[in-house]
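Readers of this paper often ask what the protein records in our data store actually look like. Nothing more is needed to write down the fold, since each code stands for a local backbone conformation. Below, we set out a record of this kind in full and without editing:
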Amino acid sequence: MIIPKYMIDSKTIDDEIKILNNILNQQRQLKKTLVLYLEKISDGIYNASDPTDINSLVSCLDGIKKSFSNIKENINSVIELKQFLENTLKTSGYLNTFDCETYNKTFSELFEKITDDNVFYYSFMESLLKYMDVIFNK
């Protein structure tokens, strides 16, 4: 969210922290999902006998590595922004000198990066569909 210059108070900062917590939880969930896929793909590599299948699965690992790195960077950036806001609340009188333009610019750039990284993540997940089969237990 973008914080308006004229509405900087502790409630606005608290609301912004909640938004950052939601973004953080979403990124952490994507990270957990990647770990599950990493385990499945590792098992697939271990059980594969066809070199073509192994090469395809190894290339999937590269996609997981890139997506994991992006998500890890996003999590760290969101935590930094969140800590900045939490410190703002703790520091008396700082709300009067809060640099909302710098914060808003940082938030906007981070949000744009997260959006781009999420597009990569979901595109990667979509590319994995060609390797999936639904198997029903009898």
